[in-house]
């Protein structure tokens, strides 16, 4: 089970496997990420590597990111997000964030997404709403 602590390069193989399990192919063209409670560059790189593996061979992808139990990322993690998203810019049709009522995360998302180059994203309290926006974006592509 993932604890509410930062995971870094000293993480055990079991912990790395647990981080990877937070990334799944929800449908053929939708990757779902249950973000870490405390976001680090290490956990982000592990998650992005898994996303890249799942996106192989697909022309377009939608990304659903559940941040309801996450703290806002620090400066180093934000830089990692910006760098790693750029590798997916041509594949992501839309990124939907589920935040619940977390105002700090809502603000952080807009700040971070500005630096990614991805223009189609949404921030929603509920998963149903986030998925609806994802399907609309995928259908219009």
Description:
This protein is an alpha/beta fold and 141 residues long. It has helices at 13-20, 41-55, 75-86, 103-114, 127-140; strands at residues 23-27, 30-34, 61-66, 92-98, 121-124. The protein has a five-stranded mixed β-sheet, sandwiched between helices. Helix 2 (41-55) packs parallel to helix 3. The longest helix has 15 residues, at 41-55.
Q: Oligomeric form of this entry?
A: single chain
Stretches where pLDDT is under 50 for at least 5 consecutive residues are none
Distance between the termini: 37 Å
Shape: globular
Give the DSSP E fraction (strand runs of 2 or more residues). Answer: 15-25%
What distinguishing features does this structure have?
alpha/beta, 5-stranded mixed beta sheet, 5 helices, 5 strands, globular
Summary, kept brief:
The protein contains 5 helices and 5 strands, in the order αββαβαβαβα.
Summarize the SSE layout with pairings.
Elements: H1 13-20, E1 23-27, E2 30-34, H2 41-55, E3 61-66, H3 75-86, E4 92-98, H4 103-114, E5 121-124, H5 127-140
Parallel strand pairs: 2-3, 3-4, 4-5
Antiparallel strand pairs: 1-2
Helix pairs in contact: 2-3
């Amino acid at each position: 089970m993932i604890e509410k602590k930062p995971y870094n390069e000293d993480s055990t193989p079991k912990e790395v496997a647990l981080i990877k399990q937070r990334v799944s192919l929800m449908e053929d063209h939708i990757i779902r990420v249950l973000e870490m409670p405390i976001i680090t560059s290490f956990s982000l790189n592990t998650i992005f590597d898994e996303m890249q593996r799942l996106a192989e061979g697909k022309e377009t992808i939608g990304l659903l990111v559940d941040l309801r139990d996450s703290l806002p990322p620090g400066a180093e993690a934000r830089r990692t997000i910006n760098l790693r998203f750029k590798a997916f810019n041509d594949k992501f049709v839309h990124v939907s964030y589920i935040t619940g009522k977390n105002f700090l995360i809502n603000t952080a998302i807009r700040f971070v997404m500005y630096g990614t180059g991805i223009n189609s994203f949404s921030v929603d309290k509920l998963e149903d709403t986030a998925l609806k926006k994802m399907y609309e974006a995928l259908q219009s592509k």
